[in-house]
Amino acid sequence: MYSKGIMSSLEAYRGIILNPTSDEQGDFKGFEMITDGVVVVKDGVTQLAQDIQSVMEMKHDRLTSVGLRLERGVLYQGHTEIGPTDHVIAPGMVDTHTHIYQPTGLGGRLMVWLERMFEKGEIPAKQSVDVAREMARERLTELAANGTTRVIAWPTSSAESARIVLEEAEKLALEVRVSFVAMDQNVPDALAEDEAATLGALDELFEEFGEKIVIIDRFPIAVSSSLRKKLATLARERGVLYEVHLDENQEEMAFVRELYDNRSVVKVLTQDGVFAPGMKVGLAHSIHTNHEDMESLRMSIRAGCQVFIRACPSSNETLESHWIVKGEDRSYRPFPLRDWLTAKAHVTTGTDLGAGNNFSIYKELLEERGRHDEGVPSPTELLQFGALNGGLSFGKTVADMKIMEDCPADFAVVKGAEADESIEDRVEQAADRLIRGGANGPESVVATYVEGRRVV
Ligand SMILES: [Zn+2]
Predict the structure, then answer these.
(1) Which residues sit with Cβ closer than 5 angstroms to ligand 1, an ion?
(2) pLDDT digit string (tens) for 225-252?
(3) Which long-range contacts (CB under 8 A, 24 or more apart) does 257-266 make?
(4) How far is the CA of 352 from the centre of ligand 1 (A)?
(5) Rounded to the nearest whole angstrom, what is the distance from the C-alpha of residue 104 to the centroid of ligand 1?
C-alpha cells in the first residue's frame, strides 16, 4: 500500500528476456531465454516476468493487479498496447573502472599522459568543488544514458571529491562504489597525501557512506608499501574491494621495478598483503602480466582471494598500452583474456575515462571482441563480463541478478540490433542483438533499473 497523494509508477515492457542461471556452486552457467516475454515494474518492484503465452492465459484479477488487461487477444496497459517489440531485457551493464576527473583527448603514452592529466584534471577538481561537481555530473550522466547501472568510480585524493561523486550519482539513481584515491609519493604536491590524511579521510567516508566505499590504491608508483599494507588490512577488515592498476604499460612496469628492488607489480602487491585470502581485488588493465606473476595470482585465487580483471579496451587503444617499444621495434601484446579466465579471475569491463573515449560498456564489449584473433569471446561471454561479473564486483550473486517477480527491478531494456542470422544459437543471437543494440547509444536504451530504482 502507498499513502494517498503519492503517485504509483507502473511500467510494462515486452521483448526477449535473457535471464542468467547458476550451477550448484552459484557460478554463472548461461542464460535462459524467453523469446517473447512481458516484464511489469510497479513502484520499483518487478511484479511480472513471464512469457507472453502465460500472460495471455492469466486470470483477469492477476492481470488487473499488475495494471494490465486483455482485449480480444491484445495486451494493454491503460490505453497503451503492449505489442511485440525488438527489445532485449537483460541484466544492466557495470562500468568497473572509470575515473571521474580525467579530461579526454590529452594524448601520449601512460606516463606522459598522466602528468598532463593531473594538471588538467585531478588537480583542478581537487581544488574546486564546482569543477569537480561539473565533471562528475557530466561523466555520470553520460554513463547512465548509455545503459550503465553500476559504476566503480575513481575520484582523486580528497574525501570531498568522493562525496561529490556519490551526490551526483544519487541524483541519477546510479549505484556507485567510490573512495579516496590513495597517493603518497611520486605525484604532484597538490595530490600527494600522507598516511594520516589518507586513513583519516577513509574513516570519514566509511562512517558517512558505509558499503559504498572501497579502497583505491592508484598504483605502486604513487603509493608506498607502508601505506599499502595499511590499506590492504583495512580492505580485509571491512570486506570491501581493493582496486588498483596493474601491468598497464611498459614504462609503468619498469618504473615499479626501479622503485622496488626489481620486483614486479604483482610481487609488490603480494608482499604487501593485497592478495591475502578473503581479499577482493580489482586489477585494472592487466595486459602485460608475465607467466610467473599469473601463476602466483592463480595460487592466490585458489587460496581464497577473489580477483577481478578490469579490461579497458578503448583506453588501452588510446594510450597505446598494448605496444612494447624497444628502439625501432614495436611489438603488440594482446589482452591475455583466456589466460586470466584459466587462472579463474573474473573478467569485467571498464570505460577508463578519460584515457578511454567512450561512455558505453556495450561499445567496450564490441571493442573487446574485436581485439582477439583467436579465442574470440562469444556474445554471452561478453554479457557475462559486462553485466554479471560486474555485478559480482558489487557483491551480487548470479541469482541476485535474475529478473524475477517480487524482487527489486534491476535490469536494462535495450532496443536490439537486427538479428545476425549467421549466429545459429538463439541465445547467442539474442545476446549479440543486445550488445550491438546497446552500442548504438542512448537512443537504444529504453529503460534501466538498479536496486529497484529507475536510472535517470
Ligand atoms: Zn585507470
Answers:
(1) 284, 352
(2) 999 999 999 999 999 999 999 999 999 9
(3) 259/186, 259/220, 259/221, 260/220, 260/225, 264/290, 264/292, 264/293, 265/219, 265/220, 265/293, 266/293, 266/296, 266/297
(4) 5
(5) 13
